[in-house]
Amino acid sequence: MAVFVVAHGAWSAGWAWKKMRPLMRAAGHELFVPTYTGLGERAHLLTRDVNLDTHIADVLGVLKYEDLTNVVLVGHSYGGMVATGVADRARERLKQLIYYDAFVPRNGQGLADLGGAGGTARMKEAAAKEGDGWLVPSNPIPPDTSAADVAWITARRMKQPLACFEQKVALTSELTLPRSYIKCARIGPVDVFKPFMDRAKAEGWPTVEIDASHSAHVTAPELLRDTLVKLAA
């Protein structure tokens, strides 16, 4: 049995991994998907002070209070930023880190620096138009998502503070734990995650490309489960 903890993507929450829970349980594994402050069922905690460090603390809290060790930490999309910070601060609790179509920051980089959501200028413009200057609206849902899932997701996605995307990761040391990378092959107009797949290959991490769009936990959950379990083994 493996223990998986997911740092989920932006605008999302634990609810988005609903399809994965029974699949992982049936395969004999535990799956924790902590919802970040200000999103999902924790929407009532949203303030202007919520940032990347807040979300790192959310996941660290679950590791501590659930007393989890030997954890396979999974970072999806924006969650790669969160997972990197968690790995830096809780190395002793982790077995490995899997980036799943995710941003992989180096020390001192924020998601906006890495071109996420169109970069700082686009995010600020979107926040000014639709988020009172501090909340960023969500990116489009992958086009291969079923109509039923689009309705389910659209009703639950929330705007997220600009500070989460602008704040830079502060690492205390170079990460040394085992890492791997899952790249989703069904890309959008811009292949945002190719540089991180290239980095993973250059640094000798195990890498896998799967035939799925960016939210495989929704559109291809069985494939994602099999990929995660194989990498964890």
* Gyration radius, rounded: 16 Å
Q: What form results from the Cα inertia axes?
A: globular
Q: Number of helical segments?
A: 9
Order of helical and strand elements: EHEHEHEHEHEHEHEHH
Q: Please summarize the sheet with the most strands.
A: 6 strands, parallel
Q: Percent helix among the residues?
A: 25-40%
The tally of strands reads 8
Strand order of the largest sheet: 2-1-3-4-7-8
What does this structure look like?
The protein is α/β, with parallel strands linked by helices. The chain has nine helices and eight strands. The protein is globular. The model has no long low-confidence stretch (mean pLDDT 96).
How does the SSE layout of this entry go?
Elements: E1 3-7, H1 20-26, E2 30-32, H2 52-65, E3 71-76, H3 79-89, E4 94-100, H4 119-130, E5 135-136, H5 147-154, E6 160-161, H6 162-166, E7 179-184, H7 194-202, E8 207-210, H8 216-219, H9 221-232
Parallel strand pairs: 1-2, 1-3, 3-4, 4-7, 7-8
Antiparallel strand pairs: 5-6
Characteristic terms for this protein:
233 residues; alpha/beta; two-stranded antiparallel sheet; 35% helix; globular
Please summarize what this structure is:
By secondary structure, this protein is an alpha/beta fold.
